[in-house]
Design a protein that fits this description.
Low-confidence stretches: none
Oligomer: single chain
Largest sheet: 4 strands, antiparallel
CATH topology of the largest domain: Methylamine Dehydrogenase, Chain H
Helix content: under 10%
Shape: globular
Number of domains: 2
CATH class of the largest domain: Mainly Beta
Radius of gyration: 18 Å
Structural class: mainly beta
Number of strands: 27
């Protein structure tokens, strides 16, 4: 799932289709056909294009969100294992898209203006990516070796060189940054937990236990709350970023996977096997 920059639209990718949802009414505006098995979805900062990866494809699907139309795809590359492209992160100016490919231990770096893609080999299995608000630094979360501990590799986006590595919890699956770029959060499948990372000092400052298989992660626009979706228990955990403690926890449905939060902080959208749920955050917090 991904929200438009103004929060007026929610984009939800399911098998072979992409649905656009009006967040004012929670009604589906339109549905477009896409390739099967979508694995990653992101919107450009101007909200004019949606980019979708598909597990077995070597192309990046591109949707013109102004006209609600699928347009020419961007060719990525075929490597040792075909496909494998997953999470997508965009630079703040929208000119670059970074796509994780876990199976091939590589990133695709897409120039969205040309469009064209390069590959960047990694010494890890990249699972997810986040880009600093100034666009100069990229954070790649994933596994090395047996992943007893996880890793965030910090890269300079200009040189594409690793500048440092940070150890986090076991088997990191998602990464998100605070709005000011000072902290990173990873959900860790092996612990299960959320690692809180002080990026200035490249150190984990807290580890917050959460229910098993925390596959969804979102940070509120004001940076005050972190939302975690734990898949098999259908649980949403809300963490206070001031105290790094659990503020609220509730079971919302079975098999929840993703969570996104509207810019105004009123709603959390949670994906399940066959639906998207709108959860009132004030009610979730017990207000």
């Amino acid at each position: 799932m991904a929200l438009s920059p103004d929060g007026s639209r929610l984009y939800a990718a399911a098998n072979s289709k992409l649905s656009m949802i009006n967040t004012a009414t929670n009604g589906i505006l339109t549905t477009l056909p896409i390739e099967p098995y979508p694995a990653g979805l992101a919107l450009t900062p101007d909200g004019k294009r949606a980019l979708v990866t598909n597990l077995f494809a070597v192309n990046l699907t591109v949707i013109d969100t102004v006209n609600d139309a699928v347009v020419a795809p961007i060719e990525l590359f075929a490597d040792r294992f075909r496909g494998g492209f997953g999470r997508i992160a965009l630079s703040p100016d929208g000119r670059s898209a970074y796509v994780a490919n876990t199976a091939n231990q590589v990133l695709a770096i897409v120039d969205t203006a040309k469009p064209a893609a390069d590959s960047l080999m990694m010494d890890m299995q990249p699972e997810d990516i986040a880009v600093a608000p100034n666009g100069r630094t990229m954070y790649v979360a994933g596994c090395k070796n047996f992943c007893v501990t996880g890793t965030i590799e910090v890269l300079d986006t200009a040189s594409r060189m690793v500048t440092t590595s940070i150890t986090v919890g076991s088997k990191p699956y998602r990464i998100a940054l605070s709005p000011d770029g000072a902290r990173a959060y990873t959900t860790n499948l092996g612990d299960p937990s959320v690692s809180v990372v002080d990026l200035a000092n490249s150190q984990v400052t807290a580890s917050v236990p959460v229910p098993v298989e925390p596959t969804g992660l979102a940070v509120s626009r004001d940076g005050g709350l972190v939302f975690v979706a734990s898949q098999p228990t259908g649980t949403i955990t809300v963490i206070s970023t001031v105290s790094n403690t659990v503020r609220a926890q509730a079971k919302v449905a079975g098999n929840v996977r993703e969570v996104v939060v509207t810019p105004d902080g009123r709603w959390a959208y949670v994906s399940t096997l066959d639906a998207v749920l709108a959860v009132n955050i004030q009610s979730l917090l017990g207000g």
